[in-house]
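To close the chapter, one final illustration. This time we ask the reader to focus less on the individual chains and more on the assembly as a whole: which components sit near each other, and how the overall shape emerges from the parts.
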Amino acid sequence: MSKIGGFLGRRVVKSILVLFMIAIFNFFLVRAAPGDPAEILAGQSGAADAEYIEKLRQDFGLDKPLTVQLVSYLKDVATFDLGYSYRQQAPVSTLILAHLPATLVLALTSFAFALLAGVGLGVQAALRVGKWGDTVITTLAMLAYATPIFWVGLMLVLVFSVQLQWLPSFGYESVGANLTGFAHFADIATHLVLPTVTLGMFYMAVYARLTRASMLEIRQLDFVKTARAKGLSERTVIMRHVLRNALLPIITYAGIQAGHLIGGSLLVETVFAWPGIGRLAFDALVQRDYSVLLGVFFVASIVVVVVNLLTDILYTLVDPRIELK
Amino acid sequence: MKNFFRAFCRNKGGLVGLTVLALVTLLAIFASWIFPDSPWDMVNAPYMPPLSEDSLLGTDTLGRDIASGIAYGARVTLVLALVSTAVSVLVGITVGAIAGFYGGKVDQIIVGFIELFQTIPGFFLAVVLVAILTPSIGTVIFAIALVSWPPLARLVRAEFLSMKHREFVEAAVLSGQSNLRIIMTQILPNSLSPVIVSGSLMVASAILLESALSFLGLGDPNTMTWGYIIGASRSVLRDAWWMSVFPGIAILMTVLAFNLVGEALNDAFNPKLARKRTS
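The assembled structure is written out below.
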């Protein structure tokens, strides 16, 4: 038990270290950029008046030595003070917290879609290896793997919103509909379909290929022969013995996917006007509201670090062979 | 070598990929010959659909030719993707070789550093970098290279770790060769094949990354790119589908081609594995 405790402790310390490094990186990035840090953070396009920029300069202590600036910056970040958005007249952390739930919902549905569809397709391909069903699935996965996700989004809008008019193409609810209860829930769900498929498509392909490959490998191992020799039905052999073991590498990928989902949300939320932190970051990008952009980057990193920590823990629980070094 | 080519040519996907890449490269080289006007010039009426006179793939909101934009975009895309991949391969090999060859403390520090980079959401990092350092060809290459090198460094490190104690390396150590010489003439040439394979896959992801950046408006403002055309088409999707469809197909085909070539190279370098996989 203490072994697990020590392992957890080390992983938590490492995660905090990563966030610490990202904060330092943000600090130096703004100062490495051409121009005055205060003007960069205020927004270069002349949105801020001279008085405000002067106030920022004092807040940052830009006249003080760099180390003093860094320490006070890290203190701010540690207390989740990520600066103030002059454009939106609100603290950055407040803006981010307001937009975070929408992104988490989208990321979770995309993850579920990628996992279920990907593993399902991978299993089907592995069961039909060499036949046309396998060829179709493998080809589709290859294509999905090579398609830019923002383009997938636009094409889905063209087909399902513009042409067929089945699904809404932007926002998270129908504007002005004032729905309540189940109707409201169903409305949000229909708005979620296209963004979910768009964001999940790439990893669906990854999971399909991974599941197929690892099932084909495991199928040839001795314990599967034993299971067959015991007279178990093919279905039981596949589901209980092959698939269960084939799923292990997928947990590793789930951690990697977290970063991809957060990065992809920037593109997908831009295409679908989904009101999450990705959209917030894009608007900040367009308006050169860099304190918001850096804040979203930092919070996105926190999300990824936490998910990685959780998958590491999950992995050690699922696979007892892993040593708690 | 002969066997290698034969194995590569047996792979239909690889041949298709190579053909597509050859076509895209020709398009990029002869862009200014096929389309003498600048892709930024208004050459036709706005919103002309595909197959209209003088504009095979239609025109955009300002009457700029989409086909011309795709041809000039091929130049930018290929150059950016190849240069940024070259940079990240160089960094990856250097870092990975040092970690794998020297081991110990050096290795621990480098591995920690690689892990750090792999936990940072890469695309976000690239966006923040390019936005704040202002978009230009240089910053885009820098950003793509910065987020792409860690997996390659891991790969090279693993190769070096496994080669370090092989007889031919120990022989070189005993014969008194310098570390640098051993790395360059003994270990590196023997671990190049996985590097070449992941290099071609890295070009594919560099193209995806570059097109996503220019889609968001973070490309060099003076270059016509595929992602830029799609980004500009977003607001007129309902009126001009061709503006987003064709450049997207260009990205898809090129990325797919690099992936197919990468897989074919992998199969050709590991003929035994390849045969096992298809049987």
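Residues 89 and 149 of chain B are 6 Å apart (CA to CA). The mean pLDDT of chain B is 85. With these observations in hand, you are ready for the problems at the end of the chapter.
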